[in-house]
């Protein structure tokens, strides 16, 4: 049911698999990934093994595309190809998200393809998450007069996929140096699109919880994220995806706002609710090949230090951070 209490518009579909016909009904605002999850419940064919023949003409679009964007008619029929997993329990809610998530070209303002109804639904989703999200648990007490830096982990600071002999070989060059340089001016937060169990293990093994020269204020995992619908420029379609809404932090810690918060992430869609606060960085992958040459954190560190002298971050376009010519901080940081 829609957060407002109105019934969600539904789309009945039919598919065949191994000579058997199936009927299912999905919300119109569901995406292809959610359709695949329902198909898994009926057939035990895992999403990564599913080939949906005839759902659309041509190549199946991204799993994040909203079904409403595909122009499907009620009782549209297609064929499923794929092999079931026998005697295997697939927990689609508890399993981590795929390690490789394609970035999306999203409009940062309401577009013709995104109705006021979708915008209102996104806001209701925010209110629903705000109501159920518990208070933020601080790892270290907050210091006065600091700005807020929210950092993604996977592929922003850390290559979570490449197989190496030691976890330090997955770390993005300059990670600790950046955090040490910024700690006098910022409260440091990690917000990761993964489960708490894996997030805790990663930041522990990377030495982020015990570093002598910086401290993390708090950490958020994927349970603080929720789904929204955004407009994709490239294909003029609606996409449903998870988002990191800074509003959830600002309401709980009112000393922070869009004026003094910046969010660094390799996925643009994570900024969908706060595009003015996002700084997109290139993804760090193939650490075994790129660790010796990757220097992406150096200009980011310089820019974040330059922001120390900016009273209101909303006056800046963070996408132009590499050409920003503001002064670096001089003198001691604000008193703790």
UniProtKB/TrEMBL annotation:
**Keywords, sorted A to Z:** Hydrolase, Magnesium, Metal-binding, Nucleus, Protein phosphatase
**Intracellular or extracellular location(s):** Nucleus
Q: Which Pfam families match?
A: NIF, ubiquitin
BP GO annotations? regulation of proteasome assembly
Q: Which domain of life is it from?
A: Eukaryota
Q: Which GO terms describe its cellular component?
A: nucleus
Q: Per the record's keyword annotation, is Nucleus included, yes or no?
A: yes
A Gene Ontology molecular function term for this protein is:
metal ion binding
Q: Which InterPro entries match?
A: FCP1_dom, HAD-like_sf, HAD-SF_hydro_IIID, HAD_sf, Ubiquitin-like_dom, Ubiquitin-like_domsf, UBLCP1
The Ubiquitin-like domain extends over 9-81
Query: Where does the UniProt annotation place the signal sequence?
Result: none
The UniProt entry, under Gene3D superfamilies, shows: HAD superfamily/HAD-like (3.40.50.1000), Phosphatidylinositol 3-kinase Catalytic Subunit, Chain A, domain 1 (3.10.20.90)
What are its cofactors?
Mg(2+)
What reactions does this protein catalyze?
O-phospho-L-threonyl-[protein] + H2O = L-threonyl-[protein] + phosphate; O-phospho-L-seryl-[protein] + H2O = L-seryl-[protein] + phosphate
Q: What class does this enzyme belong to in the EC scheme?
A: hydrolase
The EC number(s) attached to this protein equal 3.1.3.16
**Domain FCP1 homology positions:** 142-307
Matches recorded under NCBIfam families: HAD_IIID1
What is the name attached to this protein's record?
protein-serine/threonine phosphatase
Annotated organism of origin = Caulochytrium protostelioides
